[in-house]
Design a protein that fits this description.
alpha+beta; five-stranded antiparallel beta sheet; 7 helices
Length: 400
Amino acid sequence: MSAAAAAPQPPRQIKLDPQSELRVEVLPDAPLRVRLISGTAEIFGTELPPEGWVPVPPRSKIAIFTWHGATVELDGVCESEYTSDETPMVIYVNTHAILDARRGAARAATAQGGDLQASQGPRVIVVGPSDSGKSTLCKMLLSWAAKQGWKPTYVDLDIGQGSITIPGCISATPIEKPIDIVDGIPLEMPLAYFYGHPNPSISPDVYKALMKELAQTLETQFSGNAESRAAGMIINTMGWVEGLGYELLLNAIETFKADVVLVLGQEKLWKILKDAVRSKTNINVIKLHKSEGVVPRNSKYRQKARSSRIKEYFYGIANDLAPHSNIVNFSDVSVYKIGSGHQAPRSALPIGAEPVADPTRLVAVNISTDMVHTVLAVSYAKEPDEIISRLSPSYSSSGT
């Protein structure tokens, strides 16, 4: 349904009972705004301000939850809207309380001169199949922690959607205040490593190498910042949980030294992960129910969401940014592709060894019209072998 086909909807007030939520799906091209009339309510852990109107971004699927009861008003066209009292919010906030206690223990250990392990706050990785509510749970846990005065680090490994920066990147950023309902994750100080594809199956070794680079950078930051170390991290993952996807999940748990694994929406995944880390007594694998309000998204919707995220990256959510072009001579830049290098000849290998391509080898790419409207990454590396650790996203919109 498009805005043109949607029937106008007058402003309407909705009364919510305690521990219930209003679930709203926003159209791609029809404006919607919400305001709190009475009581208290929140969207994914961030409280609605009293009285003032809050615009809801296009394509959003939000849940306005209230602990003690509230009346809210909607103004605009919705694709769907309904209330529900069947939510896992009590379980989620109890999970937050446990993590908050661990952060307090880590801070106390730091004050008492404890070792690095004792002074490390929870490293939480949220896993589950596609459309199980992983990103939403991450936002809630981050916002609740920020509300308590912590500054947890958010790590996004979901290259398909990209909640911190442009899709195709793995990234991390500190969260210093509850996540803004309109603007989303803050972009003041993100660490971003450019992978360049929406799916890790294209080059899983590069994906793992970038995860390792990001994890090492965060370790360095934590070693010099006791508060960030105690606040810990919340790690979002992709929805691919079988075969290679499952192997990459295990690799992420090990690479980021996650000690809390929250499994959403799939008992089978919870069981096999629990068995996989059975020998590691410091890792807790916890099964959580997904919200019934989570809406499945097909491949066409995901593609449109990626395109929308790319546009937001350059133009801003409210189209308030003004990207500009720089003209650079082809002779002044070098373009490389990571991986897909030529295999070493058999004559150069030990007897009996098979030639294997280096998955992170740099291969020079000829600049051509094939690169028009593609996203590239600008590296500030001084030598080519440093490129993989120094990538940030940029954009090529023309062949000149």
